[in-house]
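QA checklist item 7 of 12: single-chain prediction sanity check.
[x] sequence parsed
[x] length recorded as 292
[x] structure emitted
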Amino acid sequence: MKKYKKVYLEITNVCNLKCDFCPETKRKAEFISEAGFAQILDQIKPFTDYIYLHVKGEPLLHPNLGGLLDISYEKGFKVNITTNGTLIDKAADTLLAKPAVRQINFSLHSFDGNQKEISKAAYIDNILNFAGRAIAESNIIISLRLWNLDSALLAENQRKRNLAIMHKMEEHFKLPYAIQGNLSETKALKLCEQVYLNLDYEFKWPDLQEDEDFNKGTCFGLRQQVAILVDGTVVPCCLDGDGIINLGNVYQNKFADIISGKRAENIRLGFCNHKIAEELCRKCGYRKRFSQ
């Protein structure tokens, strides 16, 4: 049976920020119900042990987040959450109390373009304080992400913001070294037990208005991962935020049948053979990371 390393499950497409790097979805705003969430988990259970509460939207906005995490635990899933981190103070107790939570990824680059909405100092401090609690109270892995590097020289003001954030990390975790000088070639660094820093280049989300790249390439979509939008639409990966590659809907057809369908298999086999079957995938900037 086909097994995925990741199944992305969008519990809401509503977000409290408007980040420059993340295009707004054109879909109707929704929050998944507990019944719908449980139904999806039952369908995907044979195919993965790991769910990622992330496609579009801010998962910490969900009013029944605790209930969804309880359902995840009851059904044997390990949960990974990607958040902009602005609501971590309100959600902290819930997250730390739920054994289903395996990892929380904080997109620190969410600060870029949102300076009017959030205080930079308080924003970073709240996230670092939560990381400290996670170390003391749980086994939750914390990934601190700065995915705002530029392929050219980093803009001076942005470079200074990144360095200021890294200095805060050095002080908070009492590091005996400067982060900037100790990053590996993969731009990853273990700051302490359970806490990691990950830097990466900014990428372009797939967009049908972009130029098409007909070169050979590959991706993990439908090979190691798949995504389900809040309305039940199945798409190949977490970057199809508008459901353009609509493979089917889990509320209308079985997940097992959807991922075995002709279109899904064409995409998967195409990636296995370095052929890009879908137009949207040929217009995806993130996919190019796997073709280098």
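[x] summary fact logged: The CA atoms of residues 6 and 195 lie 21 Å apart.
[ ] second reviewer sign-off
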